[in-house]
Input
Amino acid sequence: MNDHSQWADTVGAYLLGALEPDEAERFEAHLADCPVCRRDVEDLRVAADALPVSVPLIRPPAALKDRIMSVVNEEAELLAAAGRRADEAGERPPAEDRSRAVGRRRRSGGRSLGGWLLRPGVALACALVLLVAGGAAGVLLSRGDDTRTVIAQTRAPDADVRLEIHEDGSMLVAENMPAPPSGRIYQVWLKRPGKDPEPTSVLWSTRGDGSAEVAVPGSLEGVEAVLVTDEPPGGSEEPTKPPVITAETA
Amino acid sequence: MQLVRRGEAAAFELIYERHAQAAFSLAYRMAGSRGVAEDVVQEAFLSIWRSGARYERARGSVRTWVLGIVHHRAIDALRRSFVHERRRASDEGIDETLETGERTDVEAARHEEAATVRAALGHLPSEQSQVIELAYFGGFTHTEIAEMLETPVGTIKGRMRLGLEKMRHALGAGQVSLG
Output
């Protein structure tokens, strides 16, 4: 039923959120096959996205933030505690390969990467990439005298990419880096000696001028290289392509 | 691990700080009630924290992403409630609306953007702005609007599309920054 004429006027209602859920699903299925409707959606999205901007600004009550942050901090602490336990458990079998373990979980019907990506904070990590790109996360990425810079190898001929390793975190800094191919996104991986690359939740693209600053999550202790591949939206559990960026930390 | 988690909470707080005002304003505009607006914003931001939704940079700015989630949550809240209980923000009065002297630079810029978008909406034929308002801010489906206005569904959908096309033209296809 992907007849374009049936859906020609639906794009407005879709963008305004005025379709019934089942109709919205059917329209999205049609979009997959209809370049005309896809173009219409992209063309008109700017108008729909502008609508919330038109409302009078009202400051939310401070108590609302307190309530939300109370839940967030509590859940962050619980996750941190769970992470410590998981890390401790993971240290017992030294031969355990985390990335392979993830693969086994997927094959045995356990939590897939999709589920892994749905862990609290992971979407925030993605959003944080943009905040970093916008220069808003200076507090998290403060530069100190202990910064070590590694020039990365890249398959993009004109790109300059470096890995800045700080005491409190690391960051990939790219210039003249091409955007990922259409329908793909860059994903950061951590490579440990003798192990398969370990996926991170960091998915990113470049700015229009080919620049990007991407926070690399976690410690680089025991990591021999930070890799970047282009992957389908949402990322992958194992690299589907050779790295476009390789930054050796040693 | 703990540091990472703390970092994520800090990142979340940064996102909240940046976008809570626009989120609350939208929720209040749609719900017409402070209590419902607070519930909507809390649900939306906790869903972001818990990653029920994922940010796709290709789909626009973080602000657009956050407001899209708030909009969906507000529609859910409106559709859960009885339609005729919905009120416009103006029904309750907005005593916390920012006065000019209280605005920060960012808020002043937002105010300018709001005026631009409102002007674009205001230039639409009334039958087009009406259906856009009812759909986007009222949370009504096109079939509900068709019944309400005693107008065929196809006509309502056509007005929505035409209205958005004219808005896009008026806004210069991106001159209003949503970043």
